[in-house]
Amino acid sequence: MAFVLDASVALAWCFPDEANDYADTVLRRFVEDDAVVPAIWPLEILTALFVGARRGRIREHEIERAGRLLGNLAIDVDEPILFRTFDTIREVAQTTQLTAYDAAYVELALRLRCALATTDAKLSASARALGIDVL
Q: What is the pLDDT of residue 86?
């Protein structure tokens, strides 16, 4: 069964100082399940990696290694649909007080009726409040 993968979990695999047991557990889930991410996910990941490199948290060559790691996982990027952004995602963002970026993860989990993997406390609480299972 698929699950929605928040960037916070994937970034824990990329930054040594963010490694944690929860992220490792989610990574092992790829043995049996695929992940799905909103269309903004690749840009969130790349931006965080660039900022991390500028701040000395990782080296430039580690960005390439992270890209290979993430590229080898069964991660499907949801097709961006403009009306969803202005209708459903806006509604979720306003209801939960999440950013549009975070609301995109919640909307995707709601639409696909699947669990959400996140280390973000506010995102997790909002998802649970809407009846979404959080891994």
A: 77
